[in-house]
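Box 3.1 — From sequence to structure: Alcohol dehydrogenase
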Amino acid sequence: MKNIEFKLPTIIRAGNGEFKKAGTYLKEVLEGKRIFIVTDSGIEQTGFVKQAIQMLEHQGFVIQTFKEVRPNPRDIDCKLGGEEARNFRADAILAIGGGSVIDSAKAIAILQCQGGEPQDYAGRDNVIKKVTPIIVVPTTAGTVAEVTRSSVITDTAKKIKFTIKDVNIAPVLAIVDPELTYGLPAHLTASTGMDALVHAIEAFTCKLSNPISDGLALQAMKHIYPYLRTAVNNGNDLEARYNLMVGSTIAGMAFSHADVASVHCMAEAIGGLYDTPHGVANSMFLPYIVEYNAVTNLEKHATIARTIGIASPNDSDEDASALLVKEMKQLAEDLSIPTFSSLPKVNENDFDYLAESSFLNGSTPSNARQITKEDYLKLFKIAYSKKHSEKSLH
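Predicted structure (token representation):
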């Protein structure tokens, strides 16, 4: 039996049309008037930022925009953002975008108040003081940074990723509006949707899972899995978009109170070295880690299979787990998830370094099955072979 601590300091406003009420919601949670918007050039082109500025200025807020965020957010960009937010004397940081934008906003909020380098706050509970209040508007259904206390940043000098984990960087408000994802391209819907599914699966199976995170993870799967193919194939399906967005947020609540595991360890390794988008990286390694882990905890993997409806109560745990492994491989194929070998920068000579980087990731001990550097190396080689159904890790 485990003792459980569950903290969710984030107010969640979820549903169609909630973004249009952003000005009102910000007035409810903030005292100051100076809003520092963090976004990227792609999101700016959608018109969401302009719409937000108009709403906020109508409510009397003063706005400055920072759009120097790149995929796999860089330490140098976060430091620049922190300096600009400090000079602007921001009363709040508003992130409009995907996971890279939101993670950057969290680091910027720290650096505005406390200075230094993003690396100074790496690890758990190293953000000693309260930071500038963070409000987030996610534009993808997958990263779930809107409800987590984590920020994953790239060390540009070392080409590795590090994580800042502290309740002080949890957003005070998340405006989760599925309508902002209607124009998301199919490939981004696929990779971010798979990313959300990874969060739910790893939260449920990792060694730090608990009854509360388990309940959230299973509920997230019920929202994500049945609608993922539909959302990719028909981005205008309102029911699918709604369920992916809500399911993604629930998955974030699950893993932020448990942990992620080896899928993320491998994904962050290649993200740091090759600058691979995080959702894509998670998606391509999910089938292999599910296969690797399933033999360790058949009951939990069977529960996943039954929860998402690909196994029946009459199936044995072993048969249900096997069905889950098969379906995760098929899902990746159906969604046209890129393969590891298809990435333009991948070099087999890097695999030993990637295995070492994965093994040293702070979430490696949380993986359902004990995993060594040699295991990671084998997994990278198997993923690189792209033979989804020909190799077994049992």
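Summary of the box: Strands lie at 11-14, 34-38, 62-66, 92-97, 123-124, 134-138, 150-155, 160-165, 173-176.
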